[in-house]
Write a structure and sequence with these properties.
Elements lengths: L14 H10 L4 H19 L8 H15 L13 E5 L26 H8 L3 E6 L27 H8 L5 E6 L5 H7 L2 E4 L19 E6 L2 H11 L16 E5 L8 H16 L4 E5 L4 H19 L1 H7 L5 H12 L2 H25 L3 E5 L19 H6 L3 E9 L2 E8 L5 H15 L6
Parallel strand pairs: 1-2, 1-3, 6-7, 6-8
Antiparallel strand pairs: 3-5, 4-5, 4-9, 8-10, 9-10
Helix pairs in contact: 2-3, 7-14, 9-11, 9-12
Length: about 450
């Protein structure tokens, strides 16, 4: 392993603490802006998580003045008042270009501001800047490095978003997941990543990859932070349901799926299971996903086919500007028979139902699984293997990745996977698991 590590690059921030201070006025917004820009200037040249913005200081000061005028009374300020948010560069943001990690002209991606960004603004958040993404949220990487070791990938496609949170540039960053683009980089960067149930966060104003599975998610530093954001951006949020969750029975998905992960993750699962058991939570192995190779194939065919549909006009005009990985995916997608793509769409619901039925038969409430096959690989030419995320994304089920352990200073993460549509319950259960894994026991 390379030793390009610098402990000063890892300085996570608490979103909950930040907004408590800004809402009350204890931390004036202009002071927060100064602190944020100081941190950005210190670490971004090394981590390369946030794209340049020559108007950054002026824009943030103006937007801060606007929200102070809108919400002058501290007691009436919204839940994310003053929260600094990094936005993956596939989401449109007013008066900011969208480049999607590509040389294709930004005019090709222009459109109305993304619904999720608008929801965050309504909750009082400030857009710090655009975070680096792989091209079109696929595999061609940007320049972002892992803050824990700059010789290693931060993961992708939400590379800059995960790195920005790990490096303490922002306490919240938006990402998206089509296979493993939130949960895997969360694991690699040692932060909490949350991918809600499919379609619980509106996707308007977003550059699609595969609309049948694309899901907006985000990065924070604790389950409490994740729940705070969820209450503002998830459609139909059921207030209080997370707090009412009971201690979960946990299933580890044994068999062919788990065998895709490496020894470091197997060891982490064993350690986590023992710690959870000691805290009073039931953990058992449950055989499932024996046909993971077929699931992987159906998901990949669906993704490639819909990628080709999404980018057909863009490729006809700018195909020579596509990076080789993206061009290859486009050509692959054109060759996918329509029947195979339709089979992929149909299998999403079938897999979800099958996983729910397996949970019912085994008497479990959540799955506990690796968030990646292992620690972040060395090198920035690849963003790592998303195999451990694929079935949950295909089924549209909510997933939260919690940091747990490390290998030579490179973080590992474990995923909790809940039932579709029950994101609130999953977040409540995740808080209990987080407490147990941290050694604090259950409250």
């Amino acid at each position: 392993m390379s030793t390009s590590s610098d402990p000063e690059l890892v300085a996570p921030l608490s979103l909950t603490e930040q907004v408590s201070a800004t809402r009350s006025g204890e931390l004036p917004l202009q002071d927060l802006i100064a602190q944020t820009l100081e941190r950005l200037e210190l670490v971004n040249p090394s981590v390369r998580a946030i794209l340049p913005d020559p108007r950054l200081r002026e824009r943030l000061s103006s937007e801060a003045a606007d929200i102070i005028d809108r919400w002058p009374t501290p007691s009436l300020r919204p839940p994310l008042f003053g929260a600094m948010v990094a936005v993956k560069d596939i989401f449109n943001v007013s008066r900011m270009p969208t480049r999607a990690g590509s040389a294709v002209p930004p005019e090709s991606f222009s459109g109305r501001e993304a619904d999720v960004v608008a929801r965050l603004r309504e909750a009082g958040a400030l857009v710090l800047g655009k975070a680096v993404t792989t091209e079109f949220a696929y595999f061609a990487p940007g320049a972002t490095a892992n803050p824990h070791n700059r010789a290693h990938t931060p993961g992708g496609s939400s590379s800059g978003s995960a790195a920005a949170v790990a490096a303490g540039i922002a306490p919240l960053a938006l990402g998206s997941q089509t296979v493993g683009s939130v949960i895997r980089p969360a694991s690699f960067c040692g932060v909490v990543g949350f991918k809600p149930s499919y379609d619980r966060i509106p996707t308007g104003g977003t550059l699609y990859y595969s609309p049948s599975v694309d899901t907006i998610g985000y990065f924070v530093n604790s389950v409490a932070d994740a729940a705070l954001v969820a209450s503002t951006v998830l459609l139909g949020w059921r207030e209080g349901e997370d707090a009412e969750a009971s201690a979960p029975n946990i299933g580890v998905p044994a068999g062919a799926f788990l065998e895709q992960s490496g020894p470091e993750m197997h060891a982490a699962l064993e350690q986590a299971s023992a710690r959870l058991g000691a805290a009073g939570l039931a953990v058992e192995e449950v055989m499932t996903l024996h046909d993971i190779a077929d699931i992987n194939k159906r998901h990949s065919d669906l993704n490639a086919s819909e990628f080709a549909e999404t980018h057909a006009e863009r490729y006809a005009t700018y195909g020579s500007m596509f990076r080789p990985q993206s061009a290859e995916l486009y050509e692959t997608g054109l060759a996918i028979p329509r029947a195979d793509a339709e089979a992929g769409r149909a299998s999403r619901i079938a897999l979800r139902q099958r996983l729910h039925e397996r949970m019912d038969r085994a008497g479990i409430d959540v799955w506990l699984a690796p968030s990646a096959v292992g620690p972040a690989p060395e090198g920035l030419a690849s963003t790592g293997n998303p195999a451990m995320n694929l079935p949950w994304t295909h089924a549209g089920m909510p997933v939260i990745s919690l940091p747990f352990g490390d290998v030579d200073g490179l973080p590992l993460g474990l995923s909790l996977v809940g039932r579709f549509g029950h994101d609130e319950t999953l977040l409540g259960q995740a808080a209990m698991v987080e407490s147990a894994l941290d050694g604090r026991g259950l409250s």
